[in-house]
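User: Could you check the structure of this?
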Amino acid sequence: MSSPGGISVSARGLTRRFDGFVAVDRVSFDVRKGEVFGLLGPNGAGKSTILRMLCGLLAPTEGEATVAGLDVRTAPESVKQHIGYMSQRFSLYEDLTVEENVDFFAGIYRIPGGRKRERKEWAVRMAGLEGHRRTRTAHLSGGWKQRLALGCAILHEPPVLFLDEPTSGTDPFSRRAFWDLIYALSGAGTTVFVTTHHMDEAEHCDRLGLVYRGELAALGSPSALKAGMARKETTGPSLEDVFVSIVEERDRMAGPVAEVRR
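Assistant: Sure, the predicted structure tokens are below.
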């Protein structure tokens, strides 16, 4: 399932307030099918709040959004059935074994018996844990947990995958291996929506939305964002240069804020 025109995720004027505090302010963007789209911004910028609204976990105060052609405001439960979600905490049960975790998530997603066996084998193989089926998840390395959590999140083969800072706390080798998996999923047609505050990870995205103080401060491919700054200020800017420049300009325009966005 996807939205008309090959758009998997769409937001128009998406806004969220908490007791008068504006955490997300009139955010609009489209994400195409099979695209790796990143929300980049510092902690507290509003990235996770945007993601939670798109996942049907938090109702927007204003605006609208669709995911896989489904309205997040009127059909949040249907949205949840058509997405995969993985947080930085990996959403695994550490007291369960590798195999038990996969069985648990297969049950949550109501994967039929015959298909369940096939998907279970795929998840274990993808995670590189064929020889660790009966190992308690608590005893796995961060990289293994990461791949196992990804496998569990997409057992039901959702068209859209949301990753909320999924590589926090993992080593560089594991992060690179994880991004190889993301590219493979994208190449097969899965839309991947990822939040991060790591500049090197942002470079891996097809397009980026730079989020600051709850607003979408810039939108484009990493190369286009850097090229835009090169025309204005200097040659060969990094993505970090672009982001710092945008943040400094926004701070000059907005002045100090009393609260930190969630």
